[in-house]
Amino acid sequence: MRLQHHAKTQLAIALIRRGMRTSLVARISGLRPAVLRELHHEIHGCKPLPGQLPSTGSLLGSARRQANASVFAGLYRAFGGAAVERRINVEALLTGHRLYLEQMAGLTGSDTLGPTLDINQGWVIARDLTTGLVLFRICERCAIPYVAGAFSRRSVDCPICALKVSRTGREVKDDAPPQPLGSSTAEQGKPNRDATTHA
């Protein structure tokens, strides 16, 4: 019993250090909320903040957010296997999230995928994979796996391909020749009346 309690406490400490809310840590570890609040105060030097968990819709609401979540979910499943679609694997969640943060750190300069997911947002995705609210799909064009909301209009759209199209459009616009000051594209095609008059 002591070893089991010690293992639960160590897991709770790892989750709290990562920033997981004590309500989730209580659900995962089985430890009493009062104990977890004390641990949180010892680790972070403050009381845990209350608040609601984010919804899946907010985490997958745009191509950029969906691609961001797909990076995390892919790493999570790589360590937890197909079983993560049936139950949450906490060890795979921690390992996948750590590697996800490392991968995202390399993209900081480009800001391609926006803000990183914290461990609580990662847990929401992991939870909804087990309920079927979040599904793994594979793009028929680029063959890259991604996650999508089961009832979302974006469920059939690959976020990676959508971002590629968006970026290509911006690059084409950026490569367009500069317009002369004080003139528009339409004005450039018009003949110069003064030149015609004096010719």
TrEMBL record:
Residues 190-199 have a biased composition (Basic and acidic residues). It comes from the Bacteria. InterPro entries: FlhC. GO terms for molecular function: DNA binding; metal ion binding. GO terms for biological process: bacterial-type flagellum organization; positive regulation of DNA-templated transcription; regulation of bacterial-type flagellum assembly. Keywords: Activator, Bacterial flagellum biogenesis, Cytoplasm, DNA-binding, Metal-binding, Transcription, Transcription regulation, Zinc. SUPFAM superfamilies: FlhC-like. The keyword DNA-binding applies. Residues 169-199 are annotated as: Disordered. This is Transcriptional activator (FlhC). It comes from Thiocapsa roseopersicina.
